[in-house]
Amino acid sequence: MATMGSAIMPRTGLGRLGLIICGIAAVAGVMVWQAATASGSPDPIAAQTSAAAVVDIGVLVFREGLECVLVLAAILAGMGNGRGVSRNPIALGAGAGFAATLLTWFAAVRILNDLSQSVSALALQAATGLLAVFVLLVVMNWFFHKFYWTGWISFHNKRKRELLANGNGANGAGWIWGMALLGFTSLYREGFVVVLFLQTYRLRLGGETVFWGTCMGLALTAIVAALTFVAHRKMPYRKMLVLTGGLLGVVLVVMVGEQVQEMQLAHWVSMTNIPALARIIPAWMGTWLSVFPTVETLVAQAAAVVLVLGSYLFVNWRAGLSARGELSAVDEQIMRV
Fold it and tell me: CB under 8 Å to 324, separation ≥6 — which residues?
């Protein structure tokens, strides 16, 4: 990832300007939406903080959208104007991946609605919450991302080279389908992750919150995609991924706290109160940050932070070994991004 990041970092301030515009658009979008639907700022001790959930959803959708843009940019790299026609099947494949993501959403909604007839609401929310936390832990795992960029992007680039080498004559149809498949998998992989993550928000807060959060994330992704593929600008992808990763770290802590509390309410996990902390932690921290004065929630949140930071430190430790030539050839390939 470092190699790719250094290759596409902007040489001017345009990339930073684009990032600032994205941030302003996100904040303005939430403020306008909140003002229109809640008549002003949300109450920090209200039962549901939909504005915060919209931002959480928007961050994750934007993060996955960034990764999709990066994969597509890697596929299109080296395919100049002389091969402009070869971009069309990739675009069609990406469009099909978006349509498949929508179908997956409706299928997931149908399945969960059917399950709600036989499973209690608390149990269903606890189960989908576990799935959402798992998705976030995977997204936030630094070692996974190292392997992701070397494996997933390298696979797409290798397949692209093979298709371009054979993309003539009788193999034309196979080449078109192959390029379309590259575009499809690039988008649908990220879309599938988003669909899984959003189910717990839909069950807990309803479809409207999910809709507006998804719109925010897609709008920010569209800005980056337009600057990348239409304006042909080099964006600071690495910095944006780090920024969104930090925001997702906060989302992860909040979701873990919510998840453990839902499991406690569903009687899946015991509840051990800490009276001393109950007098210190205000009610709004439970609503906004899911920080509750119980042993189970605090231990789970601490474990999530340790897991994310541990994977980050592990990756950097391995990178240090690589710099000193102490890694094997296989390890070197995994870490060379």
Answer: none
> Letter for the amino acid at 147?
F
> For residues 163 and 178, what is the distance between their CA atoms, to the nearest angstrom?
7
CA pair distance 317, 327, nearest whole angstrom:
11
Residues 6+ apart with CB under 8 A from 174: 163, 166
Residue 200 lies in a domain: yes
Helices (H) and strands (E) in the chain, counts: 14, 0
**Structural domain contains residue 86:** yes
d(C-alpha 27, C-alpha 86), whole Å: 38
- Residue 141 falls within a domain, yes or no? yes
Which of 263, 137, 266, 264 lies closest to 196 in space, CA to CA?
137
pLDDT along the chain (337 residues), means of 10: 40 47 51 44 46 86 88 74 62 92 94 83 80 81 61 69 61 74 89 91 87 93 88 77 79 87 85 89 79 92 88 73 53 42
Return the structure tokens found at 113. Answer: 């609605």
Residues 6 or more apart in contact with residue 172 via CB below 8 angstroms:
none
Domain coverage including residue 156: 13-250
